[in-house]
Design a protein that fits this description.
This protein has a seven-stranded mixed sheet with strand order 3-2-1-4-5-7-6, with helices on both faces. The longest helix has 11 residues. β4, α5 and β5 form a beta-alpha-beta unit. It has one domain: Vaccinia Virus protein VP39 (Rossmann fold). By secondary structure, the chain is of the alpha/beta class. InterPro entries: Methionine_synth_MetW, SAM-dependent_MTases_sf. This is Methionine biosynthesis protein MetW.
Length: about 190
């Protein structure tokens, strides 16, 4: 199981209503539905992944979240999850804003673009470290908006988004004093 899934699992209360944007094959929602008896709903644009979610018994809307999110009522979900999703959408600002409107709380997990191995690769090789933080190369995605922990925190501050909790996933380095440099991934619990 992905490390961010374990953290997200720990943040969600039992019997919650959860919407997962970019739910993929539904692994996280399936786990939450079985172990925390949540009411699960997902949105996934890729037909094969949406079908895999549906086969697991997850209610999934197959299509573009930009088209369907405006139809959801304000604060209609306890949690909206953006797990490794925000950096892959065409307009992250809109999706985050709509998520904060629809969800009472929003969970965002992402790979930290400021991670040391990526910085060193840019410095020494002149290119982004391939598949160090992401499971794909930059050219394999239609949209690719990498950002660091500090950039995300600054964005939240500038837009009056309350950070309730921040959990960092560190790489093999034991020092945890410089999170923007040494954390590979981050999980944020937010309120709008």
């Amino acid at each position: 199981m992905r490390k961010d899934f374990k953290i997200i699992f720990s943040l969600i209360n039992n019997n919650s209503k959860v919407l997962d944007l970019g739910c993929g094959s539904g692994d996280l929602l399936e786990l939450l539905a079985k172990k925390k008896t949540i009411v699960a709903k997902g949105i996934e644009i890729h037909p094969k992944k949406a079908s895999e979610s549906i086969a697991k018994g997850i209610s999934v809307y197959e299509g573009d979240m930009f088209e369907v999110l405006p139809n959801y009522k304000t604060k209609s979900y306890d949690y909206v999850i953006l797990s490794q999703t925000l950096s892959e959408v065409s307009d992250p600002k809109v999706i985050l804003s709509e998520s904060l409107r629809v969800g009472k709380k929003v969970i965002v997990s992402f790979a930290n673009f400021g991670y040391i191995s990526n910085r060193l690769s840019i410095l020494l090789k002149g290119r982004i470290a391939q598949k160090t933080l992401y499971d794909y190369c930059w050219y394999e995605k239609k949209y690719f908006h990498p950002f660091s922990i500090l950039e995300f925190e600054r964005y939240c501050l500038q837009n009056d988004i309350r950070i309730i909790k921040k959990i960092l996933i560190f790489g093999p380095v034991l020092l945890k004093h410089y999170p923007n440099l040494l954390a590979r991934h981050a999980v944020f619990l937010l309120e709008g």
